[in-house]
Design goal:
8 strands; alpha/beta; about 220 residues
């Protein structure tokens, strides 16, 4: 078997997430995470870790987030209507700086979160406001689909954890999303800035890889 063949080996088939060995290898040190890894983590959080809050929580996968960003507003509904966003209290979206229609990815990930009871879109960017304008446009495009009142809706750039390198943005998004789910759905009270740091994000790479292999084992029945 060649190295290319090994890279194409399926590691995990979890609902809508299909991960190959080449995807999982991106969790090795100093690699930029792709949309498939973020998509799996978001799906795992919604279906498994925080499924007790499924009625009020929606974590949108990167493919759908890219479609929302790129497509004309009149076409966005076909992707969002099945998600029942007007019934959700918290909506999470990964944001990237890629403006191309035909692919996801880009060079930087950040996190956009809608909080219904505050009528706020909160943007968490581990590289200051690198994705600020992209996230702002995405928030206003989402506004009619979450039924946020235009006159009172706010877009806030949050003070969040910051990366000290050029490749950990995706892991920061995953770690920040997980922490905020705990905070919003479970009453977790330790501040984000204390729990998500460059050190814990570096450690999270191994934890995510372990989660993938454990989930693969659980879902294979072995």
């Amino acid at each position: 078997m060649t190295m290319d063949d090994e890279a194409n080996d399926v590691v995990l088939n979890f609902h809508d997430s299909l991960l190959y060995k080449a995807d999982v290898c991106l969790l090795d040190d100093q690699r930029w995470l792709n949309d498939k890894l973020l998509g799996f983590c978001f799906e795992y959080f919604e279906r498994e870790k925080f499924n007790h809050s499924a009625d009020k929580l929606c974590l949108i996968n990167p493919d759908v987030a890219q479609c929302i960003k790129i497509l004309p507003s009149e076409q966005v509904g076909e992707f969002l209507d099945p998600l029942n966003l007007p019934t959700k209290q918290y909506v999470f979206l990964p944001v990237n700086d890629n403006e191309q229609c035909e692919q996801t990815g880009g060079s930087h990930w950040s996190l956009l979160v809608y909080i219904r009871n505050r009528q706020e879109f909160r943007h968490y960017d581990s590289s200051r406001d690198n994705n600020k304008e992209i996230a702002r446009k995405l928030a206003y495009k989402l506004q009619p689909f979450v039924h946020a009142p235009m006159g009172r809706m706010k877009f806030l750039e949050m003070e969040g954890p910051q990366q000290s390198n050029s490749y950990d943005c995706g892991v920061f998004v995953i770690a920040t999303a997980e922490h905020l789910c705990k905070e919003l759905c479970e009453g977790y009270s330790i501040p984000l800035i204390e729990m998500v740091t460059q050190k814990t994000v570096t450690e999270a790479r191994r934890k995510i890889k372990d989660l993938i292999y454990q989930t693969a084992k659980d879902y294979s029945g072995s």
